[in-house]
Amino acid sequence: MTDTAPPIPPTPERAPSRLSRAWQSDFLYSFRRAPVAVVSFCVVLTLVLCAVFAPLVAPHDPFDPATLNLMNGFTPPGEANAFTGDTFLLGTDDQGRDVFSTILYGMRISLFVGFSAVLLAMVLGVVLGLLAGYSGGWTETIIMRVADVQLTFPAILVAMLIFGIAKGITPPEYRDQMAIWVLILAIGLSDWVQFARVVRGATLVEKNKEYVQAARLVGRKPLSIMLRHILPNVLNPVLVIATISLALAIIAEATLSFLGVGAPPTKPSLGTLIRIGQEFMFSGEWWILVFPAATLLALALSINLLGDWLRDALNPRLR
C-alpha cells in the first residue's frame, strides 16, 4: 500500500476590510462612474483646502498693514512692478494687496458663512419639520403658515431684513465684530423653509409605518420616536438640500457683501472683493474683479453639480 498525503485544508478567504467594502459600495461606484461629480468634487476639495490653509498657501498676508506697499498697487498679473520689481501671480489691487492672497482669505469668510448658515437652517428646518409632521394639529398649521408667508418673499430680501434688524439692535462698537455672525443668522433664518417642508412631508409618510407603530406600542416617547426612528429615515433628502443650499448660501453672502450689507471691509469675503473690483473694471484693472468672480463661480457651480449628482445617487428610483 502507498501512503497518501493528507488533504490540504482550503485557505479561508479573508473578509474584505471596511475600506474595501466602502470602495465597492453602490454609492462610491456611482461616484466613480460620474466624471462631472469627480471633477466637481476635486474642485471643491481644492478650494476648501486652499481656504482652510490660507496662512500656509498664501504668499502674503493681505490684511497685515506691515506687509503692504502702496507702490505695488495695480500691478498686472505676472508682470513686474515698475517701481519695486515685485511680481504677483494674479496681480494686486489699489492698496498693493496680492489678489491671490485676498481671494484665499476672502474664500475662508465665504465658506465659513455658507457652512454655518446652512447648518443653522438645516437644524431649525429639520426640528420644525419633524414637529409639524409628527404632531399635526395647530403645531403643524402654525409652522407651515409661517413657512408659506416667508416663501412669498425673496430669500435675499428676507436676509437683508433680518440683517438690518439684527445690526440695528447691536451696539455700534460691536457691529464690525458681530457682522459675520449677524450675516450667518440672516442667511440661516431665510433658508430654513425648504428643509422644514421636505422633512414634514417625509415625516407624514414615515409616522404611519409599522416600525413607528411598534415603537408607540412599546412605550417610546414622541421625542425618542422622532429622533431615533423617523429622523434617520428622512435624512437623505436633507443632505441633498443642504449641499445645494450651501452654494446658494455662498452666493447670498456674496450678494449681501456686494451690496455693502454683508462682511465688513476689515474681513472682506469674495462678495466684498467683487464689489471693490467692479469699481476698477472700466479703468483697465480687470483682474481685481475677474479673478474673485471666477473663484466664486467655480465654487458655486462645482457645489451645485455635486448636489445634482448626490440627488440622483440617493434616489432609490434611479438605482
Automatic annotation (TrEMBL):
<dbReference type="InterPro" id="IPR025966">
    <property type="entry name" value="OppC_N"/>
</dbReference>
<dbReference type="InterPro" id="IPR050366">
    <property type="entry name" value="BP-dependent_transpt_permease"/>
</dbReference>
<dbReference type="Pfam" id="PF00528">
    <property type="entry name" value="BPD_transp_1"/>
</dbReference>
<dbReference type="InterPro" id="IPR035906">
    <property type="entry name" value="MetI-like_sf"/>
</dbReference>
<feature type="transmembrane region" description="Helical">
    <location>
        <begin position="230"/>
        <end position="252"/>
    </location>
</feature>
<comment type="similarity">
    <text>Belongs to the binding-protein-dependent transport system permease family.</text>
</comment>
<keyword id="KW-0812">Transmembrane</keyword>
<keyword id="KW-0813">Transport</keyword>
<keyword id="KW-0472">Membrane</keyword>
<feature type="transmembrane region" description="Helical">
    <location>
        <begin position="36"/>
        <end position="58"/>
    </location>
</feature>
<dbReference type="Pfam" id="PF12911">
    <property type="entry name" value="OppC_N"/>
</dbReference>
<dbReference type="GO" id="GO:0005886">
    <property type="term" value="C:plasma membrane"/>
</dbReference>
<keyword id="KW-1003">Cell membrane</keyword>
<feature type="transmembrane region" description="Helical">
    <location>
        <begin position="286"/>
        <end position="310"/>
    </location>
</feature>
<dbReference type="GO" id="GO:0055085">
    <property type="term" value="P:transmembrane transport"/>
</dbReference>
<feature type="transmembrane region" description="Helical">
    <location>
        <begin position="178"/>
        <end position="199"/>
    </location>
</feature>
<keyword id="KW-1133">Transmembrane helix</keyword>
<feature type="transmembrane region" description="Helical">
    <location>
        <begin position="146"/>
        <end position="166"/>
    </location>
</feature>
<protein>
    <submittedName>
        <fullName>ABC transporter permease</fullName>
    </submittedName>
</protein>
<dbReference type="InterPro" id="IPR000515">
    <property type="entry name" value="MetI-like"/>
</dbReference>
<feature type="transmembrane region" description="Helical">
    <location>
        <begin position="109"/>
        <end position="134"/>
    </location>
</feature>
<feature type="domain" description="ABC transmembrane type-1">
    <location>
        <begin position="107"/>
        <end position="307"/>
    </location>
</feature>
